[in-house]
């Protein structure tokens, strides 16, 4: 197969592989009865994490509540997320790509970048054909489809992989980047946050091409910071963003849940329970040195039904106050008056290492750093005197009730324990944990 691109089209050849409906596809692969059916993962939180293409064709989309999905797609099959299995398939994906090149960046659980520069000489074929060979190998060995994008850098490769989904392959050489960038909204460019996108639009920049066409003087006048200058450089065909080829063994998400007794329909109480989970998840994120940009929360009713939402911040954080503010603004979309709730859950996703968080245009990241000093003090006190010694007022109601409940339960347990020395029979109230099957 002859190639329309010369070697000069790709002085660096970077490929981005993106799993197609990855979580839902893994579920369909593991259970043949789900194949060809509309499948949605995220049942444990009441909102869609991943959707099969059958479900997407019905109009469902990521982040939609299960209640809404079932209205437009009554035959949908909802499953709880199995991140252990997803991670296993992700590791297999990385391993297959590494069998072609050692320069692989594990970007997320269903995505990776690969530098295939120089492999033309080894395989005696053009880069787009090498990309197709790896893509076919992934499909054959895993039984899953991946969209692929080839470009002279990570930014253009990421845009290319989104161009033809599912299972498509798009090549964007530097000299033809303008053909593709004119159709990409500036907010959809990898690395552009929501606030940055709004700022660009105020400057009259609506597409990736319009941003790439600006000159150095325009960047200076509008105080475009380095992370966005790097994006600008790559959209113009340059190579700036290096691949992080270290194997990533970090956690993909952080989840905290809490069941409370008795069930409650008190809005303030349920919200306080949720705040406690938010604090716990963010505390764990700080211990691991990571931050999260997206989150989700769910409420579980006395009837064991779930409802929840996915939300997103403008930049990655591990500050519970920011996530609490976000959740409170949307809480009443999930909470229903008069309904008894028995549990809440909160999950952090889109996790990034602290050192990899880019500064933003408006100084939000600097303000977040200032606020983090309070969190450092809080973490230090809790480490020294015990966890939850110091906590935020938003979770006070839940902690007060929880501590009182634990004291009552402990008191009842102590009353059931009789260990008089003069008696031969001694009894301990050991809880029934169920039968191991």
The total count of helices amounts to 16
Helix content: 40-55%
CATH superfamily of the largest domain: Reverse transcriptase/Diguanylate cyclase domain
How many strands, which pairing sense, and closed or not: the largest β-sheet? 5 strands, mixed
CATH C-level label of the largest domain? Alpha Beta
What would you note in describing this structure?
The structure is a single chain. With 437 residues, the protein is an alpha+beta fold. The protein has three domains: 7-172, Reverse transcriptase/Diguanylate cyclase domain (Alpha-Beta Plaits), CATH 3.30.70; 175-235, DNA polymerase, domain 1; 254-397, Dna Ligase, domain 1 (2-Layer Sandwich), CATH 3.30.1490. It contains 16 helices and twelve strands. The chain has helices at 22-30, 53-57, 66-72, 83-98, 119-123, 127-142, 154-163, 177-181, 194-202, 208-212, 216-221, 226-235, 267-287, 320-330, 364-385, 396-416; strands at residues 14-19, 39-41, 50-51, 77-79, 104-108, 111-115, 146-151, 169-171, 254-264, 290-301, 306-317, 341-353. The strands form three sheets. A five-stranded mixed sheet has the order 5-6-1-7-8. The chain has a four-stranded antiparallel sheet with strand order 9-12-10-11, with helices on one face. It has a three-stranded mixed sheet with strand order 3-2-4. Helix 13 packs antiparallel against helix 14 (320-330) and helix 13 (267-287) crosses helix 16 (396-416). The longest helix has 22 residues, at 364-385. It is globular. The protein starts with 13 loop residues before the first strand and ends in a 21-residue tail after the last helix. The relative contact order is 0.10. Mean pLDDT is 83; it is low at 361-366 and 413-437.
């Amino acid at each position: 197969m002859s190639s329309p691109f010369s070697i000069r089209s790709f002085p660096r050849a970077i490929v981005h592989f993106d799993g197609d409906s990855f979580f839902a596809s893994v579920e369909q692969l593991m259970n043949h009865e789900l194949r060809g059916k509309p499948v949605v993962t995220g049942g444990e939180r009441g909102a869609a994490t991943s959707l099969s293409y059958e479900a997407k064709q019905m109009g469902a989309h990521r982040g939609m509540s299960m209640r809404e999905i079932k209205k437009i797609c009554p035959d949908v099959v909802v499953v709880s997320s199995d991140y252990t299995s997803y991670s296993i398939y992700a590791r297999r994906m990385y391993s297959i790509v590494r069998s072609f090149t050692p320069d692989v960046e594990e970007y997320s659980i269903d995505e990776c970048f690969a530098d295939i520069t120089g492999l033309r000489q080894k395989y005696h074929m053009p880069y787009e054909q090498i990309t197709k060979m790896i893509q076919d190998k992934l499909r054959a060995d895993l039984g899953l489809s991946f969209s692929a994008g080839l470009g002279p850098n990570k930014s253009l490769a990421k845009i290319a992989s989104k161009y033809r989904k599912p299972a498509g392959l798009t090549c964007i050489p530097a000299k033809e980047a303008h053909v593709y960038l004119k159709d990409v909204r500036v907010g959809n460019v990898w690395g552009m946050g929501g606030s940055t996108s709004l700022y660009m639009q105020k400057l009259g920049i609506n597409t990736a091409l319009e941003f790439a066409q600006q000159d150095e003087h325009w960047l200076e006048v509008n105080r475009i910071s380095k992370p966005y200058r790097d994006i600008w450089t790559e959209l113009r065909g340059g190579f700036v963003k290096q691949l992080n080829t270290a194997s990533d063994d970090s956690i993909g998400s952080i989840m905290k849940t809490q069941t409370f007794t008795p069930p409650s329909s008190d809005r303030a109480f349920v919200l306080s329970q949720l705040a406690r989970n938010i604090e716990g998840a963010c505390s764990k994120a700080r211990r691991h040195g990571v931050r999260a940009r997206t989150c989700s929360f769910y409420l579980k009713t006395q009837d064991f039904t779930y409802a929840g939402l996915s939300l997103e911040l403008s930049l990655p954080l591990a500050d519970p106050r920011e996530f609490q503010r976000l959740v409170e603004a949307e809480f009443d979309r999930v909470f229903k008056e008069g309904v008894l709730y028995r549990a809440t859950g909160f999950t952090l996703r889109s996790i990034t290492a602290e050192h990899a968080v880019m500064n933003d245009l408006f100084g939000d990241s600097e303000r977040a750093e200032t606020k983090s000093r309070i969190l450092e003090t809080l973490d230090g006190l809790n480490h020294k005197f015990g966890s939850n010694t110091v906590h935020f007022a938003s979770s006070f109601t839940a902690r007060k009730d929880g501590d009182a409940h634990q004291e009552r339960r402990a008191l009842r347990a102590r009353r059931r324990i009789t260990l008089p020395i003069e008696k031969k029979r001694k009894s301990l109230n050991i809880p029934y944990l169920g039968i191991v099957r």
